Protein: Bifunctional ligase/repressor BirA
Organism: Caloranaerobacter azorensis DSM 13643
Amino acid sequence: IGRKIIHFDSIDSTNIKAKQLAAEGAKEGTVVIAEEQTMGRGRLGRGWVSPKGKGIWMSIILRPNIDPIDASKVTQIGAAAVWSALSKVGVDAYIKWPNDIVLNGKKVCGILTEMSAELNRINYLVIGIGVNVNINSQEIPKEINNIATSIKAEVGHDVDRKFITAEILNNFERFYNELIKYGSIKTSIEICRKASILLGREIKIITNKGERRAKAIDITEQGELLIEENGKIEKLISGEISVRGI
Ligand code: BTN
C-alpha cells in the first residue's frame, strides 16, 4: 500500500480520480492524495469540505480477491487504521460504526468505500479517507460545526499531517494483509470494538425505512453491528447509525 502515491495540488475528488485510474488498470495499493478537493464527496450523496493543506484527503485502490458482499470489511480496516494513527499522536478518538471517527462527540474523519464488481468478483475497490487535521474552528462551515470538527479545533494546535498519513497507510497495509492472507479482519475488529462509541449504548438507527431505537451489543468478526431490540438480536450490515445524545 502506498508504494505508488499520486499527489495532486488540487483535484475534484480523490475518489473520482482513483476510480478512473483503477478502471484504467492502476495497481493495487496505488494511493491518490490531494492537498485540496474542490468537489470532495461524502456518503449518501453529500459533499466533503476539503480545504487546501488542512487535511488528509486520500483514496486507496484495492483489488482484493474477496466476495463483493464482504467489501465493507475494508471500511472497518480503514476505520481501525485511522483510529490507531490518531491514538499514536495522542488524539483520543472513538470509532462510530461503520465508518466515522469522532472526537469529543463530533466527526473528525469519514470513509467512503466505492466498488466496481461483477457477480462474485471485485474488479476494484476505492477507499476514500478524509481526516480534518488542521482546519481552524472558525473555518468549519456553520451549518456543520455542531457535528463536525478537526483535530486542531479540539487539541488547540497544529498536528503533523505527513506523520499521520504515513501511520494510516502503514496500519492499513498491516490490517489489509491479514484479510488477504488469512481472510480475517480480527485485529481491525478488536480495535473497532475497543474504540467504539456505540457499544453498550442505546442508538437510533436511521434507514430509508425510517427510524428505530435499539441497543448496540457488539461488532462481529465479519464487521457487522449486533443490536438488541425488544430482546431480539439482529445484525446490521450497513445503514446510517446515529447515537442518541450526540
Ligand atoms: C463520509 O463520512 O460521508 C465520507 C467522507 C469521505 C471523504 C473522503 S476525502 C478523500 C476521498 N475523496 C472524496 O471525495 N471523498 C473521500
User: Anything to note?
Assistant: The first helix runs from residue 14 to 23. The helical segments are 14-23, 72-88, 151-155, 161-182, 186-194. The radius of gyration is 17 Å. Residues 13-15, 37, 40-43, 46, 48, 50, 57-59, 100, 110-112, 128-130 surround biotin (CB under 6 Å).
